[in-house]
Protein 1
Amino acid sequence: MKKSTRWKCCLNLLLFTVLFPSPCSSDSDQKINLFDEDDSRSRLVMLDGNMYFHAGQQKNISFVAGIGGSIYFGEKNLNLLPELAEFETVKGEVDKNKDRIHQLVKTADLFKQQIKLKSGDVASLNRKIIFTKVCAFISSAIQMT
């Protein structure tokens, strides 16, 4: 092959790849249909570093860890999920009780203020009663003389 023919061939190949990119390119914006939803067979597909699990129609995906082993989802140990769920339930109850206690404290403070006001009213009434009795005593003492 001549040198100029070789260059033309390489140039044509380069132009072809630039003008007609591969439809299998990972940069493609097209959604790739990995699984048939009606397929009863299970599949595991690895594409561009991603793993896709398809359980098939009426099938399950199960992960089983050996004795002392764990299954993680990110940083979360999935073996602890029941305990975490129970913890969240208990935490919710504690938060509700904390709100109830806060409301009780507010109510107790309100009662304390009302008691102070009423005790002030009682003291004022006691002073009036004593004053009335003293006045009555003085009045009767003056009348005796």
Note: Helices lie at 3-19, 81-144.
Protein 2
Amino acid sequence: MPRGWISGGLPAGWEDGLFPNQRAMDEQGTKGLEEERRLAYVGITRAERLATITFAGNRRLYGQWQSSLPSRFVDELPEEHVEVLTPPGSTAAAMVRPWHRSGSVQMHDR
């Protein structure tokens, strides 16, 4: 029986505040953050070859545009296993963390 899937996308919303979830961190502190990190690890390691992680540089929240940064978990991925892709016309490059060249799609190749 296969342990996971060959390749696929993880749920969207890998932005700080969404994943890890701000409420989990507010209510449970470090324990909540570690549980969110555990969920990220499980999702990534279920992929046998390729896991696609996406995040939005801008998102509408209650009718207002909100800028966001990629999840802190993206920074914890080994850089040699990450390929950054930027959709045409994207302005995400100005919002990503320094070691990301530009992008809104993260790929972790196991």
Note: The longest strand covers residues 47-54.
Protein 3
Amino acid sequence: MYRLYFSLGKDPETGRYLRSPKRTFHCKSKNPKNWSKECENALSAYRTELEGSRKHENGSRSVSEYAENFHALRKGTFKSPLAYKREGDYIRHICALFRDIRLSDLRPDDIRHAYADARKDGMSDGELHGTHVKLRQILQDAVDNEIIERNPCTPVKLSKPTYRERKPLPTKDASRFLTCLLKEPLSSKAAGTMLLLQCGLRRGEMLGMTWGDYSAENRTLKISKQYTNDKTLRPPKSKMSRRTIAVNETLIDYLNQWKSIQRKQLGRYGLDQNESTPIVNGIKVVTTDDGKHATIVNIDGHNFDRWFRDFCVDNGFGSYENVTGTFLRNGKKHVRGTGYTGLVPHALRHTQATLLIGEGADVKTVQARLGHASPNTTLAIYSHAIEANDRKAADTFARILAKGR
């Protein structure tokens, strides 16, 4: 007679070691030589029974319960809190779509029907695709943890959403935008807008730029960080986003002028300009018992967007649906309001890429300049400009052949 049991590890709540119930086993053979083999078989059968019981117990957890736990365990593992928040949005979609369906009961057809209902309720293709990718990841985690045997997402095919056509400024409007910007009094936000236009930067990259990243001598700009919406300096979006790009004489002259003006502005507050000073800066003044103290800060993205909207409305690149105020400046009427429609900062990035491709710049150069992780991203986003180049190439080739007749 033997007593069989297995160690089940530590209880995560109490820290005590657990073990399975003891099971008494009587050998059937009268020959002692056979008892060890019978014990091995009995242990194997008991293990299979225990594992099946554990799978059944864990598989009875709902999809939403498992998804929420998956998300909670990943807190603090993301580079950006915004990325964790974005995953939380996908988790909420998953919970709404599958509610109390058990992990062990979820089938591919259930997923297809849930997606069809989501489309009817107005979920966008992009949001649905992101939710699908997250669900597949969560269910694969359940497979890896031996809670379910197969990932029901695997047979469900959901094509990537097509990029909506970007709306860059045409060449004539881009030139007019530059003219308007050069007429604008030099300021940190105007300098930031010039960086967006001339370099195709992301807004966060522009806001994180310091004078140490700029070299007038080498005519380069180094992108190594970004200032995000949670008001934190972080590494760029991807490895390829860390880059050094060339800058033109127009930008060099503009930045040099702004650097001189900024130095004087900071000096009035007893502050020094150095390589760590943001190019697009703000000055925060705090009053304490000791008096007023000024510090240099990065400008908040929402604050910059507000200035950008006003600039666009003042110069005919946008409008406010609800006008809340008007004033005169240098004999020109300006309006302020809410319900903005028009040009947005990110459109300047698309303007740079589209105009470069239109002028024959190769995709690899544009990818490196914009900091896309892959040239495939550049190809997908700017396919319309590349197609236009293809037509130009066809017409050019026809003209070449015509000359040889």
Note: The first strand starts at residue 2 and ends at 4.
Protein 4
Amino acid sequence: MTTETAPETQEKIHIPVPALTGYHTSDPHETLSDSEQELYNQVLAPFTKEDYVIPEMPEEEKGGLTEDERFWLSRHCLLRYLRASKWDAQVAIQKIEATLRWRRENRMDDPSYASSIEPEAVTGKHVMFGFDIHGRPAFYAFPSRQNTEDVKQHLRFTFWIIERGIDMMAPGVETFDALINFAERAAKPNYGEAMSIISILHAHYPERLGICSIINVPFFINAFLKLVLPFVDPVTRAKVKFNQSVLQDGVFTEDMLMKEWEGNRHFEYEHHKYWPALIEMCENNSKRWKAKWRALGGKIGISEWDYKHVDEDEKLGNGDLVVSGISAQLASSTFEDNEKQTEVAVVPVVPETLAS
């Protein structure tokens, strides 16, 4: 991959790009075959029983499904697990129940979670910024910015950020891209931590990875990855690319890429600006989607397309950009840095418990 970067056309940016819409005009998974629909119904059935409880939970964690858990159990969620299970309904049910246990044990729906892992975020080692041409949010990782030593906290933060990427997915988008940059003398990788990330992604985030692009790979990292990749399933392994240009490959446009990846966005992480903007954006998306989900009946199995789809009166301008009610600073389609404003070009279109 070339190290040259595109000319910067913007001032420094410190906050996330607002979510876009227009990538899909209809639900990509709206239509199922008769046999697929039957298998889907089999997966849906146990979770909709009034007396359903997550099996194998500790006594203090037992109880019926919470509203957040019912919301998570969307039609598209069940289909992701079915596809990942090669359309074996019983396997899909078991995997979903394992993820429900993991999410409850690790407080994935707890609104106070952000404050507990915030110290991990202050260096900008993981950020969500921009979208590829398919609308997939980009998860950037900079291992050289590692600032703590607690592996459990590293894992908590990694998946908290991925959850925020899910909060930024437009209607019809179900996957994210991982862009990992090993420049600037990245610390020696932790084999156990890497294996835990792979295990959690495989078990609890099936059908979520779009591509994984890794650049500036030094020799010792390359040797490390040769140890790790054999444990990755073949489908996921095929999505991992080394030292390739996501710009030249046509996956991203310049205006949606950081300059380190040949884009023209000069993103600079400033925690006091990025962190509250990310949380506000994601919370407002989540609140809007849940309100619509409740209006649709608040049931398990509601389509993500149906509760994410934007009505005409929710659109801004010509409908190409939707920012879901976030603050005026973000909704203006500009990024503000103190007294400067810069135009933003947008394109329409399982391991141990993490909790201590």
Note: DSSP finds twelve helices and seven strands in the chain.
